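Example record for the data management plan.
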Amino acid sequence: MMKRLLFLIILLLSFVWNDASAQQKDGRYYKLFVPATFYHSVAKKQLSIDSLTTGDEVMDAVEDALMKVYLRRPDLMLNSENRLREAGTVRNDVDVQQVQTVELTGQVAPVVEEIPVVVEPVTEEVLITKPNFWTFKGDYYLQFLQNFISSNWHKGGESNYSMLASLALEANYNNKQKVKWDNKLEMKLGFQTSRSDTLHKFKTNNDQLRLTSKLGLQAHKKWYYTLQVTAYTQFAPGYKSNDPFTYSDFFSPFDLNVGLGMDYTVETKNKRLTGNVNISPASYNFRYVGRLGLATRNGLEEGHHTLHDIGSMLTVNLTWKMSDYATWKTRLYGYTSYKRALVEWENTLELKVSRYITTNIYVYPRLDDSATRDDDLGYWQFMEFCSLGFSFSF
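Corresponding structural encoding:
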């Protein structure tokens, strides 16, 4: 039955739509499209004994359709005309056909065909730059120390001059995924003069040439599988006051260490403490001494230039920026072949006086049981200095 009712409504709308007069706006159809409402006029017309028509075919058809819905589906009627009047007035003018009159204001001028303008597409070059995974940095300082003592100074002593130059260069690769490659070259050279030394105008008091290269493959977060290569020697011969013997020289000794292990990246205290810890359980060490006379002093058999051994290695490099004016750098290096042991612990406390003036306090204890044993210190060696001078970082 409901299908027949819908068909009747659709048929009615189709009839009205095809009518030429229905092409104009007509509010008489609004009751079919607004939410279902019970209108008094529809029921009054059906219950009237006088006439069943209003004389308007459209209104009669609309009200007949609504009446069928009232009788068959009264549950759909959620609103009534009384509720609408309580909410506001009900417009009655929409029941009257509204006819709009259209007047022409003038004749439309003919359209002049324009010749299309061809616009050449603008081509722009897109520049794609390859990300640079390399970072470079360096530290340099040049510092001096002068001490003058007159010949009649009541406590004695000796005038001397000293100079220290240091340069550290780093070139590091990190693709932010799994591979990193760190390279660091450290060079230090210091000289001193003293009046009591009649054999040497000057002699070295700090001499270091060291290269560290480490290739890492990420294992988990801050842990990396690493292959580390460390090579170090010195620049110039090493002497003692009024002693012609050469205690060390370039490539006497020269050490090359290759270690396979793991590396942990340290980054804490809001990135003020940074560095890494490298553990190499499998490590190969090669030592070369060019001067045969220094072979036994460096753990080699007499008359031999080289030494090969396998052991384990530990390297710790940390930088702690305690404040804007104080920075502590430390390097702990340990190697053992389970027959000999070498431990080096370098500590540098840098105090900034100004942007380019710094004071450095350097403390360097060292243990090497392959060297000649000293009567007082045994296998321990110790060096310390304090200097003031120019520094520059980039």
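Summary line stored alongside the record: Residues 20-24 have pLDDT under 50 and may be disordered.
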